[in-house]
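User: Can you help me understand a structure? I only have the sequence.
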Amino acid sequence: MQHYDLVVLGTGSGNMLLGGFAHLRVAVVEPDRFGGTCLNRGCIPSKMFVVAADAAEGARAAARLGVHATVEPVDWKAVRDRVFHRIDPLHDSALNYRRDNGVDVYTEEGRFIAPRVLEVAGERITAETFIVAVGARPVVPDIPGLDTVPYHTSDTIMRIDDRPTSMAVIGGGFIAAEFSHVFGAFGTDVTIVQRGPRLLMAEDEQVSARFTELASKRHRVLLDAAVTSVEGDADGVAVAVTCPDGDHVVRAAMLLVCVGRRPNSDRLDAAAGGLELDAHGHIVTDSAYRTSVPGVWALGDVVNHFQLKHMANAESRLVRHNVLHPQDVRTLDNKVAPHAVFTSPQIASVGLTEQEARRRGIEYLVSVRDYADTAYGWALEDTTSFVKVLANPVDRTILGAHIIGPQAATLIQPLIQAMTLGLTVDRIGRDVLYIHPALTEAVEQALLDL
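Assistant: Let's start by predicting it. Here is the structure, written out as tokens:
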């Protein structure tokens, strides 16, 4: 049995917190690749694909500006290899760096067999402190026939050898939206099968409705649709779907399944380690990210329901501080948790949606301003994008903000900061200068309306 001062399980955001522990005997356990989901099969590679998709889509759309361009068939392998030739070498360099600096690296999967006792590759290891950051993985739904046909999830779709001529996408969330944009821009005929009445149901209803409208012009979109079975056919797969208007069969060369993600606590056998889990399998922590077992901390997708890398990064910094400074334990306020969907058009959101405010009986003021109301919106010939801000009518602070349109993830940042700092809409609307002519004027106008 090996005993350590610190064992870190998972090398996504878990790898980021190791600085400052050189005085301790440290081990990390990573059965997959250093960098976790974000680096290898999530945020970073997918956004590199999105940049290429945006370039292709932008060229085709340039005619509205008087620029006539054509897109040759997209070289899928060149796009793919640009991404992974840059990403893949990072695993070996990170692993070697840790080993060269005195960290023991276990490359087999670890499972708890008792509180603070882990079994890895037939060896038991214990530690004074464990940090659990084992992440999450795609949900594979129980669909009759799915196990008999080839299909992809977000873990595998970016590494395929050839772009399919057609694709059926089961799911209507942010992963479905992003990959539908990528493959659609590259020339694939995409059909989205969504069980709800709109795409991106978690977004503000007005944003969700606008995105559904625009996506339906690019792809075939089946709403309120239930997948009843999947089977193979000569050209790929046949997906049987029941919709309000009857039964359909969606035939496609490739099937992408993206219906959600689940925490990897089961693979870790967290319950055997005494760790309390919630109804969804996430490890329960307090606001300092201490678990139910003294000496065990947890962070990232295995803990929070946001499934956001920027949240995991903040948690990693916090846990590192708390482990190094047990007499000065800090907590993290998760009330302001922004996110973005890098589809087309781009979407960004923070705080309450309008439907949440209504459901919870929260009074609010709301302002919606179109990109088209700004000079830069004119330059873009934009007719569909908007900024939406909800504010508290009493203390005048921002309750929520939602943007759909080019550069939404960047435009929302001053609203995130205002929410975090408790600034009123009056201060950030009247007391801040917004560059003219820039898209930020759409944010300014929404604030001035309030």
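Now, to help you interpret it: Residues 43-61 form the longest helix (19 residues). The mean pLDDT is 97. Let me know which part you'd like to focus on.
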